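[Protein data]
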Amino acid sequence: MAPRANWKGFLRLSLVTCPVALYPATSESEKVSFNQLNRKTGHRIKYAKVDADTGEEVDNEDIVKGYKIDTDTFIEVTKEELENVALESTRTIEIDEFVDRSEIDPRYLIRPYYLVPDGKVGHDAFAVVRETIREMNKVAIGRVVLTNREHIIALEPMDKGLMGTLLRYPYEVRSADEYFDDIQDVKVTKDMLDLARHIVNQKAGHFEPDKFEDQYETALLDLINQKRAGKPITAKARPRGENVVDLMDALRKSIGGGAAAATEALKKPAKKARKAAAGQKEMLMPIAGKKPAKEAAAKKPAAKPQRKSA
């Protein structure tokens, strides 16, 4: 079943307009999630919306939004009043400007979306906007209203569509000064940098998300599998961070081979390490659905594992 669009409206570049739909580019629905239970009965916990003063449950139709002025004073705002806040971006993504991708501070990035033509019409206009952005090697900046709030959105070509990334406003980004001001100015020696560079070269690779394994998710599934099978649960030893007393010695040990290897590393750059194949280990429950690494590696391209409900 195709995902539902989070937003539908129009994309406009000056006088060029086309109907578009916005879809979330990421999902966390396959992550392990838990319900809250009553330890005594095993029943699920249900949350009720109650009046803070009377303790009585309140029906949804009697609930309105309120802006807090002080402890006991609120300004009530109805759904109709919010809908009457006339923003053109409620139905239209107007492209305001074009910027270089390198100019967008990563701290402003929130989450990505896919923007596609909506319906059979407008594909030509959509292609004109997409290819113009691609040809100019720019990122288009516009505005869109999602969940009753206006967001800045950065649009850039991705294959036949556009990827839109929501951006934060300046007031949402904290200054780094209050965090970084107390960091001491440390003089790093050339030998330390050379050894550290050697370690980086040993671990150098390419960004391949398929290699990533969510180890915590795997551990959660193992825990559930063991409990379902009635096996005893044993606590695993927690890794302990060692206090580094001699930084130079720690760098040498990180390379391996002791002082001789470290000396050799300072003379010549290290060869890149071979890329290791990674894969999720096999689960016992159908909710996991992961295949062994060897079996997954034998198929090209590797099929994305399917998670099934228990």
Observations:
- The longest helix spans residues 123-136.
- The CA atoms of residues 211 and 277 lie 7 Å apart.
- Confidence is low (pLDDT under 50) at residues 272-310.
